[in-house]
Write a structure and sequence with these properties.
Layout (H helix, E strand, L loop, with lengths): L3 E4 L5 H12 L3 E6 L7 H14 L3 E5 L5 H15 L4 E4 L14 H29 L2 E6 L13 H21 L4 E8 L18 H6 L7 H12 L7 H12 L6 E4 L6 H18 L7
Parallel strand pairs: 1-2, 1-4, 2-3, 4-5, 5-6, 6-7
Length: about 290
């Protein structure tokens, strides 16, 4: 039997791809997105057309991860319609590019709000249902930047994704005894196929950002070019969606899955970190949480 799944930030990019491929795999999938009657109305219409054309069980649901009221309403409507919720995919996120100093503290806070607190709002809405069922799966779409090679000018985004990864690690141990699995899907830097870079935010303090041009002229353009050159020609953002489909369908989902064609090193470092964490849990007599 297919699972009931909600994917946040599903109007485009990884989220939109995951919704469609999860539905084609036989699941009932809700695409969470903001402004379903406004700027995302076209995405809603496209999703409906996809469902009709492919006989896929897909639905758009109004879900703003920056609002607890919105998260509660979205999850509540899904459970009311389907009688259950099996999988939560935390995909919503936002990227910014520019010198770290030129971003205001308020910009840092907003980015953290979207990428980290957004997952907490959705968890607080969804986890009571999953815990009550004694089953479920929480999938976090992370980033290889948390432990891989990282270029400059992406500090606020990298920091937020690192925080989200840390939260996911703790949730994994705290949910396991309720029968709820956790998976962190770790994409590398995909420079095409998503709107991550094209829709990225910029520093509010443009004057301070311009001061960096003296010694770092055109650095973000340089980073963008080099990342694109490092990315193999066969790299496909659809591989991230496929990884989500695989872990959702697995009898025993893995804790971490890397999808990084450019091989920035995160897989190596995460393997060590996760092993060391497991060894520590044994030492404090919590081996069942490994």
């Amino acid at each position: 039997m297919g699972k009931v799944i909600v994917v946040t930030g599903a109007s485009s990019g990884f989220g939109a791809l995951a919704v469609r491929r999860l539905a084609l795999a036989g699941n009932t999938v809700y695409a969470g997105m903001r402004e379903t009657l406004g700027r995302n109305a076209t995405a809603v219409a496209d999703l409906k057309a996809f469902g009709v054309e492919n006989k896929a069980d897909v639905h758009a649901v109004e879900l703003d991860v920056q609002s607890q009221e919105s998260a509660d309403a979205a999850i509540g409507s899904i459970v009311l319609e389907q009688g259950r919720l099996d999988v939560v995919v935390h995909n919503a996120g936002h990227m910014v590019t520019g010198p770290a100093e030129a971003f205001t503290p308020e910009q840092y806070a907003n980015l953290y709000d979207v990428n980290v607190l957004g997952t907490q709002r959705v968890n607080r809405a969804a986890l009571p249902h999953l815990r009550g069922q004694r089953s479920g799966h929480v999938v976090w779409v992370g980033s290889s930047s948390t432990r891989g090679g990282t270029p400059p000018y992406l500090a606020p985004y990298f920091a937020a994704k690192a925080a989200m990864d840390a939260v996911a690690v703790s949730y994994r141990a705290e949910l396991l005894r309720f029968g709820i699995e956790t998976t962190i899907v770790v994409p590398g830097a995909f420079t095409h196929g998503t709107n991550h870079f094209t829709h990225s935010g910029a520093p509010a303090d443009t004057s301070r950002a311009s001061e960096y041009e003296e010694l770092y002229p055109g650095l973000m353009d340089q980073v963008g070019r080099r990342l694109a050159e490092l990315e193999p020609s066969w790299a496909d953002v659809g591989a991230v969606a496929d990884a989500i489909v695989d872990v959702v369908g697995a009898a025993k989902p893995p804790f971490r899955v890397h999808v990084d064609p450019s091989s920035d090193g995160a897989e190596v470092v995460n393997a060590v970190a996760d092993r060391v964490r497991g060894e520590f849990l044994r030492r404090v007599e919590l081996a069942d949480l490994i």
